[in-house]
Amino acid sequence: MARQQGTVCRLCRRQGEKLFLKGERCMTGKCAFEKRPYAPGQHGPQAQWQRRPSAYSTQLKQKQKARRIYGVLERQFRRYLKLAQQSPGLTGSNLVVLLERRLDNVVYRLGFADSRAQARQLVGHGHFNVNGRRLDIPSYLCKPGDVIGARPLSQANEYFKELAQHLGERPVPGWLSLDAVQMTGSMLSTPLREEIDTPLDDQAVVGFYSR
What we know:
CATH topology of one domain: Structural Genomics Hypothetical 15.5 Kd Protein In mrcA-pckA Intergenic Region, Chain A
Structural class: alpha+beta
Radius of gyration: 18 Å
Shape: globular
Order of helices and strands: HHHHHHHEEEHEEH
Number of helices: 9
CATH architecture of one domain: Roll
Helix content: 25-40%
């Protein structure tokens, strides 16, 4: 399974904004972006040029932002874009909806993990069932009617025992439902773009690949 190498805090600093890649840590004073809100590199804040960004750099920045938030590498991201182009509707909206339907993202949205990276690791280690069957593929695209739940054996782990004490405290999107007692969730419907709170200019992402 391909993954981002190195510290993810550098990605937020390179992006110039918080991407909340470390979950709760990003809300505390330990967040690296709070301490050094400028791009990484030996020149530090002196490297921040005050010049007007070009259309290309704006589109590139939005594309990189989408990839970093959802933890998707370039080749896979292009496959999602191709699927989005083949579906009816706006390509940008379709792209974001596809990314939201990833199993690791659904696990994160249900509150089973503090970040998408943690959710990806939990799924990859086989801690979740989908429709009663063990599934360890983070990129699996969930569909309406799918039931996602922590495996009974996994619920005996210390992580899930501690999770059970505060599962359900975080808001769950309307296109998902959560049973905190049973530690299961289900996908009620395919999300609409307006139901997804990810701050992305998805049309700029499409524009980058349309050059």
